[in-house]
Fold these 2 entries.
Entry 1:
Amino acid sequence: MSSTFFGTLTVAVRKGLVYKTIVVDLDTGHIIYVGDGKGSEALDDFWKKVKRQGVKIELVTSDMSAAYIYSVITNAPDATHVFDKFHVVKLVHEAVDKVRRSIWRQETDLEKRDLIKGTRWMLLSKNLDKFDEKQKERFHNILASNERFR
């Protein structure tokens, strides 16, 4: 194990019955460890191997599992821990949608409620260029109508 960068991946081997935690060398893409389960204990033997070989971990990628966070903090406290894009984007989408729904429920002006309704994907879009002029105008009206969207 010469690399100092690794990522974890948890997979279900049989639909919800058997989980494996896979550690991948981010430089080579090679699997360097497979542990049973999806908790921090699935990485215990991996950390023993890292310590035995004197490897200094600089970067770790994983999902936002509390077990993985704990395991990395405990065993590689100086490593940079990067969370996977899928879970970060999911949290952002959920937060934006929560705010949008909250504003819609609190809004008493029916025109403003109609303006907000059905705009989830518009608010989450990273590219306004794909919208036509009417949609762009609606988007800007939504932002102008409520400062919580800005």
Note: Residues 85-106 form the longest helix (22 residues).
Entry 2:
Amino acid sequence: MEKLSIIIPVFNEENTIVKVVNNVSDVEIPGVSKEIIVVDDASKDRTAINLRAAIAKGGSSLKVIKFISHKVNQGKGAAVKTGIANSTGDYIVIQDADLEYNPKDIIRLVAPIQRKMAKVVYGTRLNRLPNFLKDEKTPLFLIHYLGNRFLSLLTSILYGEWITDMETCYKVFPKKIIEDVGLHSKRFDFEPEITAKILKKGYKILEIPITTIPRGYAQGKKLNTIRDGTIALWTLIKYRFSD
């Protein structure tokens, strides 16, 4: 690995975007250069204003960030595709724009690639039982946990490789995968599509345990378990039998 492109798709995250970008900027990966690409998917709040202000006064570490804005909201998958199209790295990792994921984990995810142990690494949150005292203490988050485990199990059955967290944000993969197969998904179905295509290309996925701080829907969580889970289910089945 020579260069890592960290792509941050963002929509209406005015309270977190500057903190996330600063945290990602602070990550130093020995032996790896990095670029940070933020794609604002036509946010309606102060996301773009806050980030531009931070970049303007943030010194050299923030001024090297590529900041791209969609004129019309298209979805997370579309924002990721825009980021990939504007990236120059050998490898890609996606970073959500909230504070659920810890950017320091990127160092741990990249390490197996540097050691030639893997070419694709996922950060798994779900190699565990449900936590009824914390993460899954509410019915909504328990349903989310069970839905994700079901989709991950289905992925394992359809594509012949065990995986525990197909929906994880933290996916590190070679850019050439996308150049070879392309992506069609525009919204949250990006996650099952890229996983399906990685596995169909014959890549093995190495999972590394990570911890997250889940936020609730009141704090801005956008994923709808039933709606997006149903789309993910269809996407996994569709790409098993087509390109």
Note: The chain has one domain: 3-241.
